[in-house]
Amino acid sequence: MNITITGRKVTLKDHFKNLATKKLSRFDKIFDEDADANVVVTLERNRQTVEITIRSKGMIYRAEATDFEMNDALDQVVSALGRQIRKNKTRLDKQIHSAALDQLVLEIPEEAEPASAEDDEYRVVRTKHFPVKPLTLEEAILQMNLLGHQFYMFRNGTTGEINVVYQRKNGDYGLLEPDVE
Q1: pLDDT at 23
Q2: How far apart are CA 28 and CA 108, in angstroms?
Q3: Residue 154 DSSP symbol
Q4: Which segments in the chain show pLDDT lower than 50?
Protein backbone atom coordinates (compact mmCIF):
# COMPACT_ATOMS: atom_id res chain seq x y z
CA MET A 1 0.00 0.00 0.00
CA ASN A 2 1.29 3.47 -0.90
CA ILE A 3 1.00 5.76 2.12
CA THR A 4 1.09 9.55 1.95
CA ILE A 5 1.16 11.47 5.24
CA THR A 6 0.38 15.20 5.28
CA GLY A 7 0.29 17.71 8.11
CA ARG A 8 -1.87 20.84 7.99
CA LYS A 9 -0.95 23.56 10.45
CA VAL A 10 1.29 21.05 12.22
CA THR A 11 4.77 19.61 11.70
CA LEU A 12 4.71 15.83 11.89
CA LYS A 13 7.53 14.00 13.62
CA ASP A 14 9.10 10.85 12.21
CA HIS A 15 7.79 8.88 15.20
CA PHE A 16 4.18 9.66 14.22
CA LYS A 17 4.83 8.85 10.55
CA ASN A 18 6.35 5.47 11.51
CA LEU A 19 3.47 4.75 13.88
CA ALA A 20 0.88 5.60 11.20
CA THR A 21 2.67 3.39 8.67
CA LYS A 22 2.84 0.53 11.18
CA LYS A 23 -0.85 0.80 12.07
CA LEU A 24 -1.90 0.94 8.41
CA SER A 25 0.22 -2.14 7.65
CA ARG A 26 -2.46 -4.25 9.36
CA PHE A 27 -4.60 -3.60 6.27
CA ASP A 28 -1.92 -4.94 3.89
CA LYS A 29 -3.58 -8.35 3.88
CA ILE A 30 -6.81 -6.77 2.62
CA PHE A 31 -5.46 -4.30 0.06
CA ASP A 32 -2.92 -4.92 -2.68
CA GLU A 33 0.18 -2.83 -3.29
CA ASP A 34 -1.69 -0.57 -5.75
CA ALA A 35 -3.88 0.81 -2.95
CA ASP A 36 -3.27 4.43 -1.95
CA ALA A 37 -3.68 5.60 1.65
CA ASN A 38 -3.73 9.31 2.45
CA VAL A 39 -3.29 10.35 6.07
CA VAL A 40 -4.04 14.01 6.79
CA VAL A 41 -3.39 15.48 10.25
CA THR A 42 -4.87 18.90 11.02
CA LEU A 43 -4.34 21.03 14.13
CA GLU A 44 -7.29 23.24 15.13
CA ARG A 45 -7.44 24.91 18.55
CA ASN A 46 -5.33 22.31 20.38
CA ARG A 47 -7.38 19.47 18.87
CA GLN A 48 -5.81 17.07 16.40
CA THR A 49 -7.87 15.64 13.56
CA VAL A 50 -6.60 12.56 11.73
CA GLU A 51 -8.31 11.61 8.48
CA ILE A 52 -7.43 8.46 6.54
CA THR A 53 -8.68 7.78 3.01
CA ILE A 54 -7.81 4.51 1.27
CA ARG A 55 -8.47 4.11 -2.45
CA SER A 56 -8.31 0.59 -3.85
CA LYS A 57 -9.79 -0.83 -7.04
CA GLY A 58 -12.40 1.89 -7.36
CA MET A 59 -13.58 1.68 -3.75
CA ILE A 60 -12.97 4.42 -1.21
CA TYR A 61 -12.65 3.80 2.52
CA ARG A 62 -12.60 6.87 4.76
CA ALA A 63 -12.59 7.59 8.47
CA GLU A 64 -11.84 10.64 10.60
CA ALA A 65 -11.27 11.18 14.34
CA THR A 66 -10.50 14.21 16.50
CA ASP A 67 -8.77 14.17 19.88
CA PHE A 68 -6.43 16.24 22.01
CA GLU A 69 -3.55 13.86 21.23
CA MET A 70 -2.52 12.99 17.68
CA ASN A 71 -1.72 9.36 18.55
CA ASP A 72 -5.12 8.85 20.22
CA ALA A 73 -6.88 10.22 17.14
CA LEU A 74 -4.78 7.88 14.97
CA ASP A 75 -5.83 4.88 17.09
CA GLN A 76 -9.48 5.89 16.82
CA VAL A 77 -9.42 6.37 13.07
CA VAL A 78 -7.62 3.06 12.41
CA SER A 79 -10.17 1.29 14.64
CA ALA A 80 -13.01 2.98 12.77
CA LEU A 81 -11.60 1.83 9.43
CA GLY A 82 -11.27 -1.71 10.79
CA ARG A 83 -14.88 -1.70 12.01
CA GLN A 84 -16.06 -0.30 8.70
CA ILE A 85 -14.27 -3.01 6.73
CA ARG A 86 -15.41 -5.82 9.09
CA LYS A 87 -19.02 -4.57 9.00
CA ASN A 88 -19.09 -4.66 5.21
CA LYS A 89 -16.75 -7.64 4.75
CA THR A 90 -19.07 -9.89 2.74
CA ARG A 91 -20.11 -7.08 0.41
CA LEU A 92 -16.53 -5.88 0.10
CA ASP A 93 -15.29 -9.36 -0.79
CA LYS A 94 -17.48 -9.24 -3.88
CA GLN A 95 -16.24 -5.75 -4.76
CA ILE A 96 -12.54 -6.21 -4.01
CA HIS A 97 -12.21 -9.50 -5.85
CA SER A 98 -14.51 -8.83 -8.80
CA ALA A 99 -12.60 -5.83 -10.26
CA ALA A 100 -15.88 -4.74 -11.85
CA LEU A 101 -15.43 -1.19 -10.60
CA ASP A 102 -12.54 1.08 -11.36
CA GLN A 103 -14.08 4.29 -10.09
CA LEU A 104 -11.68 6.87 -8.74
CA VAL A 105 -13.17 9.95 -7.16
CA LEU A 106 -11.30 13.08 -8.11
CA GLU A 107 -11.79 16.07 -5.88
CA ILE A 108 -10.89 19.18 -7.82
CA PRO A 109 -11.86 22.31 -5.92
CA GLU A 110 -12.44 25.35 -8.09
CA GLU A 111 -11.61 28.91 -7.14
CA ALA A 112 -14.64 30.59 -5.59
CA GLU A 113 -15.53 33.94 -7.01
CA PRO A 114 -16.16 36.79 -4.58
CA ALA A 115 -19.79 36.94 -3.54
CA SER A 116 -21.78 40.03 -4.36
CA ALA A 117 -24.63 41.44 -2.28
CA GLU A 118 -27.14 39.62 -4.52
CA ASP A 119 -25.80 36.10 -3.89
CA ASP A 120 -25.47 36.25 -0.13
CA GLU A 121 -28.20 33.65 0.28
CA TYR A 122 -26.71 30.94 -1.96
CA ARG A 123 -22.96 30.77 -2.09
CA VAL A 124 -21.21 27.78 -3.65
CA VAL A 125 -17.88 27.42 -1.87
CA ARG A 126 -16.73 24.14 -3.38
CA THR A 127 -17.35 22.16 -6.53
CA LYS A 128 -16.40 18.51 -6.93
CA HIS A 129 -15.97 16.69 -10.22
CA PHE A 130 -15.80 12.91 -10.41
CA PRO A 131 -16.49 10.17 -12.93
CA VAL A 132 -19.90 8.57 -12.51
CA LYS A 133 -19.67 4.83 -13.15
CA PRO A 134 -22.67 2.48 -13.43
CA LEU A 135 -23.49 0.86 -10.08
CA THR A 136 -26.29 -1.18 -8.62
CA LEU A 137 -28.32 0.38 -5.82
CA GLU A 138 -26.65 -1.91 -3.26
CA GLU A 139 -23.16 -0.94 -4.49
CA ALA A 140 -24.06 2.77 -4.24
CA ILE A 141 -25.33 2.35 -0.66
CA LEU A 142 -22.16 0.44 0.24
CA GLN A 143 -19.97 3.18 -1.26
CA MET A 144 -21.96 5.89 0.58
CA ASN A 145 -21.56 4.05 3.89
CA LEU A 146 -17.83 3.52 3.34
CA LEU A 147 -17.37 7.24 2.70
CA GLY A 148 -19.46 8.13 5.75
CA HIS A 149 -21.67 10.43 3.68
CA GLN A 150 -25.42 10.89 3.97
CA PHE A 151 -25.97 10.86 0.21
CA TYR A 152 -24.23 9.50 -2.88
CA MET A 153 -24.72 10.28 -6.58
CA PHE A 154 -24.26 7.43 -9.07
CA ARG A 155 -25.31 6.21 -12.52
CA ASN A 156 -27.89 3.46 -12.15
CA GLY A 157 -26.56 0.40 -13.97
CA THR A 158 -30.09 -0.77 -14.80
CA THR A 159 -31.61 2.45 -16.16
CA GLY A 160 -28.47 4.39 -17.12
CA GLU A 161 -29.87 7.48 -15.36
CA ILE A 162 -28.13 9.58 -12.71
CA ASN A 163 -29.59 8.73 -9.27
CA VAL A 164 -28.96 9.83 -5.71
CA VAL A 165 -29.20 7.47 -2.76
CA TYR A 166 -29.50 8.99 0.71
CA GLN A 167 -29.86 7.92 4.32
CA ARG A 168 -33.09 8.93 6.04
CA LYS A 169 -33.32 10.08 9.66
CA ASN A 170 -34.80 6.73 10.74
CA GLY A 171 -31.80 4.83 9.28
CA ASP A 172 -33.55 3.61 6.12
CA TYR A 173 -32.42 4.63 2.64
CA GLY A 174 -34.08 6.73 -0.04
CA LEU A 175 -33.50 6.89 -3.79
CA LEU A 176 -33.93 9.97 -5.99
CA GLU A 177 -34.60 9.21 -9.65
CA PRO A 178 -35.24 11.66 -12.47
CA ASP A 179 -38.81 11.77 -13.77
CA VAL A 180 -38.80 11.03 -17.49
CA GLU A 181 -41.41 13.34 -19.02
Answers
A1: 92
A2: 28
A3: E
A4: 97-120
From residue 114, alpha-carbon distances to 111, 117, 119, 164 in Å are 9, 10, 10, 30
Whether 164 and 175 have beta carbons less than 8 Å apart is answered as yes
Give the C-alpha separation, 130 to 104, whole Å. 8
Predicted local distance difference test score (pLDDT) of residue 108: 27
65-99, pLDDT tens digit by residue?
Answer: 999 999 999 999 999 888 887 777 666 666 554 44
Q: How far apart are CA 180 and CA 157, in angstroms?
A: 17
Question: How many CB atoms neighbour CB 61 within 10 A?
Answer: 24
Residue 153's beta-bridge partner residues? 164
Residue 41 CA to residue 91 CA, distance in Å, equals 30
Structure confidence at residue 93 (pLDDT): 64
By the 8 A CB rule, do 52 and 36 touch?
Answer: no
Pairwise CA distance, residues 94 & 92, whole Å: 5
69's CB contacts (< 8 A; 6+ apart) are 48
CA separation (Å) from 25 to 10, 94, 159? 24, 22, 40
The answer to whether the beta carbons of residues 14 and 7 sit under 8 Å apart is: no
